[in-house]
Design a protein that fits this description.
Chain lengths: ~210, ~260
């Protein structure tokens, strides 16, 4: 049976993502901070919630920045929410934090004065929003373009390489809701909380050969 | 316009059982919160709120187990509130599978706790519950105050200013319950809902007083709420979630 390592660096709720992976029959799901277990896993999930400064501090302290770089190049790898943001070059949050830098681009604040058609928008961007597929990727299998997924975030991905954007979202501004590069895939929304479409995405991840 | 307004059924849970009575059809063990949550999840609810009204310590452990079971079977966001007083309470609930926690009384007595919680766990998972009651006389400029102990104890705190303060401290969302309306089924207090929703930059969930589907729509259209919470109209099978969504969508509200 294949193994899926969910990287635990002490930040936030890992129960939901591991239960959702189990639900879709992803294999043996290991929530772990053991580098060896992560290196030996067939697939790796990199979740995250909370403030980026604390997340990056823990990631660096545990040496997970280089570990993530290493394990994400030769097997299916999925970053979720702050786990996605940590893969970018830099985040504006907490006065500016350098991140892992696997994807070129910045993490920016939606701002307090976000508007759409003249009406103010609430931040965090919280709730179910549409994602338009930018590419035909194995992780979108059986998920319609413009399907709704659950988001909760105040910072968004401003991707520098448009060719890596797998799905686009819009909330006052356009942002990258999903990024893809080789065996790496990353999503701003929470698939583990996005009901049928979210579970489908996790199932697709569990079946993906990592090629794109 | 893309972001959908949310419908959130609320379960009041005491010692691991849903109280206030739940009378779904086709559901045998109506009192099991996990069963009830699963049904709402299947119906297309956008989130679940679980209010723990248990007083005892044993009951709290039961709650953690219930949250754990729920999070293993329900793949939409889960907010848990009731008796959240310490950072450890929050950690326990998040570890059990809650996505957000709702802080109520503790925020009133120690507002710094909200700041501490947001700094530690991120604003995205900190909901502050506000129980507000209208204190102005008819004809006066409307004014609402924060009440505790189920609406019995006034605090002298202005509800709108309080909501602004909670936002500043790092709350990610406000769960606003109107104590005048709760259980009365005559609709949300749209005045306080709108006053708070327009005064802050974070999402507001309207709660308290829903008796029919128009009340849900009014919460969004007139109260400017980002999400609407209700218990009894769904528990008693008066309306289903899909009916509520269709009704709201027909009034031009973006629904999932």
């Amino acid at each position: 049976m294949q193994t899926v390592a969910v990287i635990d660096y002490g930040m936030g709720n890992l129960h939901s993502v591991s239960k959702a992976l189990e639900r879709v029959g992803a294999g043996r799901v290991l929530v772990t901070s053991d580098a060896q277990v992560i290196r030996e896993a067939d697939r790796v999930v990199f979740p995250g919630v909370g403030a980026i400064r604390d997340c990056m501090a823990e990631i660096k302290r545990l040496g997970f920045d280089s570990l993530v770089r290493e394990v994400s190049q030769d097997r299916p790898f999925l970053g979720i929410c702050v786990g996605m943001q940590a893969l970018m070059e830099r985040s504006e949050e907490n006065g500016g934090v350098d991140c892992i830098g696997l994807f070129p681009g910045q993490v920016r604040y939606f701002g307090k004065d976000l508007v759409e058609d003249g009406a103010p928008l609430k931040v965090p961007h919280m709730g179910w929003n549409l994602i338009e597929h930018s590419i035909d990727h194995p992780l979108w299998h059986d998920i319609p373009s413009d399907g709704r997924f659950y988001f909760v975030h105040s910072f968004y991905i401003d991707a520098a390489n448009a060719r890596q954007v797998a799905g686009r979202g819009h909330y006052g501004v356009d942002f990258a809701a999903a990024l893809a590069d080789g065996s790496r895939f990353a999503v701003q929304f929470h698939p583990e909380k996005s009901h049928t479409h979210g579970l489908q995405l996790l199932q697709n991840f569990a079946a993906w050969d990592g090629r794109w | 316009m893309a972001l959908a307004k949310r419908i959130i059924p609320c379960l009041d849970v005491d010692n691991g059982r849903v109280v206030k009575g739940v009378k779904f059809e086709n559901i045998r063990d109506a009192g099991d919160p996990v069963e009830v949550a699963r049904l709402y999840d299947e119906q297309g609810a956008d989130e679940i709120t679980f209010l723990d009204i248990t007083a005892s310590v044993d009951g709290r452990d039961t709650t953690l187990h219930t949250v754990e079971r729920m999070a293993s079977q329900v793949f939409i966001p889960l907010t848990v509130g009731g008796g959240v007083r310490t950072v450890q309470d929050i950690r326990n609930l998040l570890n059990a599978g809650a996505d957000k926690v709702s802080i109520n009384t503790a925020a009133v007595f120690t507002p710094e706790f909200v700041g501490e919680a947001a700094a530690r766990f991120g604003s995205q998972c900190i909901v502050v519950a506000i129980d507000a009651k209208c204190v102005s006389a008819p004809g006066e400029t409307p004014r609402w105050e924060i009440f505790t102990h189920g609406g019995r104890k006034p605090t002298g705190l202005d509800a709108v200013m309080w909501a602004q303060k909670m936002e500043e401290l790092g709350a990610g969302e406000i769960l606003l319950t109107s104590m005048d309306q709760d259980g009365v089924k005559s609709g949300y207090d749209l005045g306080v809902t709108r006053a708070i929703s327009d005064a802050i930059h974070i999402p507001v969930i309207a709660s308290g007083g829903v008796g029919n589907l128009q009340h849900l729509a009014d919460g969004v259209l007139q109260g400017h709420a980002d999400a609407v919470l209700a218990a009894s109209i769904f528990h008693f099978g008066e309306y289903t979630i899909p009916e509520a969504k269709a009704f709201m969508a027909a009034q031009g509200i973006v629904m999932r």
